[in-house]
Write a structure and sequence with these properties.
This protein has about 150 residues and is an all-alpha fold. It is built from 6 helices and no strands. It has helices spanning about 15-25, 30-40, 60-75, 75-85, 90-95, 110-120. The two termini are about 20 Å apart.
Length: about 150
């Protein structure tokens, strides 16, 4: 499976983005992830986990965002994928857009299983996620990005 890359341009007329921009407070985890997802989980950071050729994966930045929200809410893989499908806040945080068919609709729960396994097999199962989410040394960044890192999710 080859590395999928998330779109950097969301439709300005996307109803989910418009709704969440207006409805969510600025200090919401959903707003934070929406604004900083690409800095926290750049798709290029996961290049070594995927083959150079093949069918494109779900963008790792989307999967990582779902994994963070899954852990925060204590959900199973199936429940997390359901939230991504039906909860506008999760779609907003993951940057996948609305329900008009233009955005990514969702993915199977096994994508989360596969990503955890890829991270486990990696030479760096606890990647430094640039935004300070976590690193192998156990050091943590200050500020709202500080957290356990993806190693806590695998």
């Amino acid at each position: 499976m080859a590395l999928g890359v998330a779109s950097q341009q969301l439709d300005l007329l996307d109803p989910v983005s418009r709704f969440c921009d207006e409805a969510l407070p600025a200090n919401s985890i959903f707003t934070f992830l929406h604004e900083h997802r690409e800095a926290l989980f750049p798709d290029g950071l996961f290049t070594d986990l995927f083959a150079a050729v093949g069918r494109r994966s779900v963008p790792p930045s989307v999967v990582a965002t779902v994994m963070v929200l899954q852990r925060l809410e204590g959900l199973s893989d199936r429940e997390a994928v359901d939230r991504l499908m039906f909860d506008a806040r999760w779609r907003y945080a993951a940057g996948v857009g609305g329900w008009d068919g233009a955005g990514r609709v969702g993915f199977a729960h096994t994508v989360l299983v596969d990503m955890r396994e890829r991270l486990r097999r990696s030479d760096r199962p606890d990647p430094d996620l640039r935004g300070g989410v976590g690193c192998r040394s156990g050091r943590r960044a200050a500020g709202p990005a500080a957290g356990p890192g993806l190693h806590a999710l695998v």
